[in-house]
Amino acid sequence: MPPIVRAENLVKSYLVGQVRVHALRGVSLTVEAGEFVSIVGASGSGKSTLLHVLGGLTQPTSGNVFIEGVEYGSLSDGGRTALRRKAIGIVFQKFNLLPTLDAQGNIEIAREIAGERGIPPEYLQRLVTLLGIGERLHHRPTQLSGGEQQRVAIARALVNQPRILLADEPTGNLDSENSEAVLAVLLELNRTLGQTILMITHDAAAASIAHRVLHMRDGHLVEK
pTM of the predicted model, to two decimals? Predict the structure, then answer.
């Protein structure tokens, strides 16, 4: 079985005004199914760029990304979108919840975007129970705490049962108590569902809950 995620010699550069910024400088990485991997680094180190490339949100300048053995570069734009919707869920620092929908509506919309109808009731119940939001499904975002909003966002990312969850600074907008709750949820998802998780963070303490911690510095990835 190939690694669930494999990156080969990723390079990403772009122009900011007249200056060329080198965000990724030959990054290679493998993540096995069921692993929880953290990437920690300072702002500007390239970690968010790496996550966006792995998630198919942006294309590298050069290099290759394989998801479950399928190379992004071999696919059309539509093929990449289909693979991303099927295999990858993404959680961002900003919750990005729709204020006009309640929590359940914000979760269900990911199914609609993927062209699916409804959520298997047993899976939804298991998911919201693990996330501790079962009693909050009919509350709108303004009625939820920051931690609850992030847990709704995690449920939305997982509702299509992706094999890979990419988490981009998932505790960046939370206080310490809610941060600990969200990290505990991610750990439980990995332990209970076997969810593969790749999380980026600037917080070394948050990163330490993972099976493996990688460090991003100046566009390079290193493992301690």
Answer: 0.92
- For 49-62, write each residue's pLDDT tens digit: 999 999 998 999 99
Q: In which band, very low, low, confident or very high, does the pLDDT at 224 lie, cut at 50, 70 and 90?
A: low
How far is the C-alpha of 209 from the C-alpha of 103, rounded, in Å? 27
How far is residue 115 from each of residues 79, 81, 89, 110, measured CA to CA in Å? 15, 12, 15, 9
* Per-residue pLDDT tens digits for 147-163: 999 999 999 999 888 99
Dihedral angle of Cα 83, 61, 167, 112, to the nearest 10 degrees: -30
**Contact between 37 and 12 (Cβ < 8 Å):** no
DSSP state at residue 141: G
In 3-state terms the chain splits into helix, strand, coil percentages (rounded to 5) of 35, 30, 35
**How many contiguous H segments (helices) and E segments (strands) does the chain have?**
7, 10
